[in-house]
Amino acid sequence: MIQQQAPRQNNNPRAQDFSEQLSSWPPELVDRRLYGVDTGEVRRELKKPSRSPETLLRLLSPAAEPYLETMAQEAALLTRQRFGHAMQFYAPLYVSNYCRNACRYCGFNCNTHVFRSSLSQQEALQEADYLAKQGFRHLLLVSGEDPEHVPVEYFAQLATKLRSRFASISVEIYPLRQHEYARLISAGVDGLTLYQETYDPDVYLVMHPAGPKKDFHNRLAAVEKGARAGMHRLGIGALLGLRDWRAEAFWTGLHALYLQRQYWRCRLSISFPRMRKAPGSIDPPCPVDDKAIVQMLCALRIVLPDADMVLSTRESPQFRDNILPLGVTRISAASRTNPGGYTFQEDTSGQFEVQDTRSLQHMIRTVYQKGFEPVLKDWDQALQTQQLQ
Taking the model in full, what pTM does it have? Predict the structure, then answer.
């Protein structure tokens, strides 16, 4: 049996940021621990009333695969207990595909020769109006990472114009400083999504050879800057396919547990973005199959019963329909990943290839048929207005 090494302890009970805790679970230790678990440890873990990072590690291990059905049943039960049968919808609105980074997996890679575009305020409003008419009330503003084309003030002005039309506005953009997040909050933004892509610093460096995103620690710290600024929603995740999914899911869960403890007033969500085809992108170095997504979702739900679990249109219709009952609480629908993709005909490049192209109305019917209640709004505008005052 492989001798297990305990994680290095952090003498400071409240680390300044997550990087200190992450350093106590280095890649070589996590890999060794994951593949050193036996089935007896998994059985005992599933019987425990309390859950910890050790629980997550064991439930993500190969030894847990024979217990996937048991895990799925517990994950589904926990989700119904915490969230009822609600299934919230959101839509991404891409405003720019200009980017300064050379991420090897992304269609927005600055070295890829594609048609670039940034929406004007009026064009972005036209796209948002289209989504509002479809019924969406939760909006995610997305862009490539190039502040020259879409500076912070661009998003602040846009949010100010949109906040009366949408119940919730989140951003998935380049990392900001705390006062810049505060500026967006004052304009009506209440959520921040920022994927670390990979929590392995060595893999991160290989996948981000150039551009501001090359700074691993700056990206890792950005979510906490948003939390300290007052963001109501925090969304995290790893891009699945860059490294062994078991380790990435463990670090994602570790990050989530830390954020829940330090910023307990924030509503936390975890996404499962799987690498998809994009112009100029590499093939996944570590392909992830459907069974792996199921194991990740169940393990994370068992350890994080109150976190939202998000599944986007990166996934196929059949897989999304089948996995909904296991722990998913938020889904996108009819997404476009290029600027102007909803109402314009410009051939701008998308960030990745969408798998599920069904309309919102189609998805609402599907969710009903699965026994869930579609939710287009769960955030009261009056409460948001009160927070902004």
Answer: 0.92
